[in-house]
Amino acid sequence: MIILDYKDARPIYEQVVDKFQKLILTGALEPNTKMPSVRSLAVELSINPNTIQRAYSELEREGFIYTVKDRGNFVAYDESLLHYRKDEIYRKLEEIVREAGEIGISRQELSDYLGERQEKVLHVTSGEDFCYD
């Protein structure tokens, strides 16, 4: 379900949060389904349970999950979460556009690149063979 990237500069809990957000937003985890227990997920990922607890706390704070006393954590989805994630992506894109402009990448070059990458990603998700250049 979740694969951690130990080369990623982000803390492990942030990676866990990001993976669960994507699973929830794409519908892979349906609303009101039970999340893995902190202990079982920590064992599965071979990480400290406190790391999972921190990720779950962040997911709950952001509205992606909710806790039922003595029963565990459950997926909480509504349309506002998708808007939240889109806003987050747009903020990242703004940062990239700013950096691209600083080093002289033109609007057209950036647009062409994004269009090509999006097309390749869509081919991958549709089941067609793909490898990056």
Your description of this structure?
The protein has 133 residues and is mainly alpha-helical. The protein has five helices and two strands. Strands 1-2 form a two-stranded antiparallel ribbon. A hairpin with a 3-residue loop joins strand 1 (65-68) and strand 2 (72-75). It is elongated, with a radius of gyration of 18 Å. It starts with 11 loop residues before the first helix and ends in an 8-residue tail after the last helix.
Features:
single chain, 133 residues, mainly alpha, 2 strands, 59% helix
> By helix and strand content, what is the structural category?
mainly alpha
| Total DSSP helices | 5
Taking the alpha carbons of the first and last residues, their distance comes to 27 Å
Cα shape: elongated
**Cα-atom radius of gyration:** 18 Å
Largest sheet: 2 strands, antiparallel
DSSP E strands, number: 2
Low-confidence stretches: 128-133
Strand order of the largest sheet: 1-2
What integer is the average pLDDT?
87
- Helical coverage, percent range: 55-70%
The amount of beta strand, in percent, is 5-15%
Task: List the secondary-structure elements in sequence, H or E.
Answer: HHHEEHH
